[in-house]
Amino acid sequence: MVHLNLNNLKVKIDEGELVSFTKDNYEYIHQKGTPGWRSSDTEMFPIIGPTDKADFKVNTPRGFAIQDQHGLLRELTYKQVESTETSAIFEKKYLANTQVKNSKFPAKSTEEHLSWPYDFSFKKQFTLIENKLKIEFIINGEEGMPFMLGYHPAFNVQSPEPLIKTPTKDITLDKILAVGSRAYQVPDTTKITLEDKKTISITSEGFGNFMLWTEVTNMVCIEPVSFYPYAVDQKDLHTGFMTLGNTESIFKVVLDLD
């Protein structure tokens, strides 16, 4: 467990997973073991969304890749690169066409192994600054590699009527619950604020969109995404790809308590 501290802010990171973010002992992150989700955060890469109705195949310029829901990055293990009192860096590396054990097999998937036809490295960097936690995702890989990226954090909900606010509208938890597993789409948005017992804002850079998901009333996932996958047929997921250039791609998320 890595601990970050700055004044009255405290962060706990377990093998690259953000498991706690507190200010004055108030917990903003959904806790494992409570109803809703078995995790507290994860990344969706190199694809976002389900693939079961496409026979777990995603079209790429190098042929079809075997991918389960939200990609294979979550099946890899982060290695800690460095840490200080206020920052930490974790990294995952993947070699093209390496078979990765699928944790959803056999209970929820017919595919025992997943693979991707490109090399890549994926860094996740945490930095505490005044009243904020900045999380950066740094992708390096082969030029021309297609990908999507989504960050999937879950936030603690402690009031009976929390409100999710965007620049153009307010969204209740009931509206998110009504959408179900597809996730509520918030297009063309870079900032969302969760007004609960305490308030936290989630600002993103590079993603462009959000989606919201929960199946319970004690947590909500507020997810910056580069593409909303439920807008297309699963066989057409590739239409949502971005393309890696000849330099690294950097995406940012800031959890702001101001």
Explained architecture:
InterPro entries: Aldose_1/G6P_1-epimerase, Gal_mutarotase_sf_dom, GH-type_carb-bd. Its cofactor is Ca(2+). Monomer. With 258 residues, the protein is an all-beta fold. The protein has 1 helix and 24 strands. The strands form 6 sheets. Strands 8-9-12-13-24-20-19-16-17 form a 9-stranded antiparallel beta sheet. Strands 5-15-22-21-18 form a 5-stranded antiparallel beta sheet, covered by helices on one side. A hairpin with a 2-residue loop joins strand 3 (17-23) and strand 4 (26-27). The protein is globular. The mean pLDDT is 97.
Count of distinct strands? 24
Uncertain runs with pLDDT below 50, 5 residues or more? none
Q: How does the helix and strand content classify structurally?
A: mainly beta
Rounded Rg: 18 Å
What gross morphology would you assign? Answer: globular
Largest sheet: 9 strands, antiparallel
Strand content: over 45%
What letter string, H or E per element, gives the SSE order?
EEEEEEEEEEEEEEEEEHEEEEEEE
- Which fold name is given in CATH as the topology? Beta-galactosidase, Chain A, domain 5
Strand order, biggest sheet? Answer: 8-9-12-13-24-20-19-16-17
Tally of separate domains? 1
Distance between the termini: 27 Å
